[in-house]
Amino acid sequence: MARKSIELHESFRPCRDYIIAMMGLTLMASLFYGLRVIILVALSLVAALVCDLLASLLRKEPYVASDISSCMFAMVFTMLLPASSRYEIVLVGTVVTILIGKHAFGGYGAYPFNPAAFGFAFTSICWPSDLYLYPQSSSRIGLGFDSGATLQTAVASALKYGGIPTIDTADLMIGNYPGPMGTTFCLIILSSLVLLIAHGAMTWHIPVAYLLTCSAWAVLFPRIPVGLLYSLIYELFSGAIIFAAVFIVAEPTTSPANPTAKILYGLLLGIGTMVFRTWGAFEMGVCFTVLLLNPMSSYLDRHMSRQARRRQAKAKSRQRGE
Predict the structure, then answer these.
(1) In whole angstroms, what is the distance from residue 72 CA to residue 251 CA?
(2) DSSP state, residue 163
(3) d(CA 154, CA 134)
(4) Rounded distance, CA 26 to CA 176, Å?
(5) Which three-class secondary structure state does DSSP give residue 307?
(6) How far apart are CA 197 and CA 278, in angstroms?
(7) CB 43 within 8 A of CB 97
(8) Is-contact 88 105, C-beta < 8 A?
(9) pTM score, whole prediction
(10) How confident is the prediction along the chain (322 residues), in pLDDT tens digits per residue?
């Protein structure tokens, strides 16, 4: 019994590290947009905990206090929203993320799709006019049900429709432009990626393969006539590509375990993301790509693991022959 408790605790270590990393993003977003960001994140976290309690009651199982994965998924979902989001959108989206995306499939690790991606895709379809308009960075947003903020489209939207962004490169790097509240601070997110890899919360295979694939697509198929370098910068540092590389596509319970499968999985996700960004209905298509390709994760794992075992068996047979 004691061993099972330790294993359960260890399985949530990546969730803890993800949450700590997103606390920095929450702080930055609150500095840019004000107190509403803190309220939105707090509302999402409370809703996630209530959903966990409700799921425990419905299953007639004890509540597992060490399961902090719902808090992680709730924060990831909220970071994808505009800072001006209405409270009911955050509440409904979090309930869908946790109750349907996570618990409907059996709880932590049993879901075939990333719950945060599931919740965001649901809210995108239900409230597209709310989720893809953003307040200007450094603007103060009201705390009422209607934020009262002046909203505008993001850089990713301009790219989608052939417009040339006018955002300075330095502002693009530090997140000083309209976009989802937690995805624009790319330098902080990349720093979080290094720390998460160093701490063992993830490996480099998926995020590096994903980012390299998106980069190659941006260079090979530029959407705006501003030169390959600027095409690469605008594609990578707008929308949620870098955020997704760290907090969505490499999430350990929905990604492969085999290193080769991870690289192939990241490559496929990168291609799918750029296809959705270019031709999809929404400029931020990574969540739809994840939902489409998550079921392939276990297949890639099994296939690559079989290949590895066959290579090992052949190597051993050659050694015996020698």
Answers:
(1) 10
(2) P
(3) 7
(4) 15
(5) helix
(6) 30
(7) no
(8) no
(9) 0.89
(10) 333 333 444 578 889 999 999 999 999 999 999 999 999 999 999 999 999 999 999 888 888 888 899 999 999 999 999 999 999 999 999 999 999 999 999 888 889 899 999 999 999 999 988 888 899 877 778 888 877 788 888 777 777 777 777 788 888 888 888 889 999 999 999 999 999 999 888 899 999 999 999 999 999 988 888 778 888 888 888 878 999 999 999 888 888 888 889 999 999 999 999 998 888 878 788 899 999 999 888 888 887 777 767 666 666 666 665 5
Which amino acid would we find at residue 192? S
Neighbours of 220 (CB within 10 A): 10
93 near 119, Cβ under 8 Å?
Answer: yes
Residue 134 in 3-state DSSP? strand
Other CB atoms within a 10 A radius of the CB of residue 152 amount to 12
Of 186, 164, 162, nearest to 175 (Cα)? 186
Q: How many residues does the chain have?
A: 322
Q: What is the number of domains present in the chain? A: 1
The boundaries of the domain holding residue 265 are: 2-321
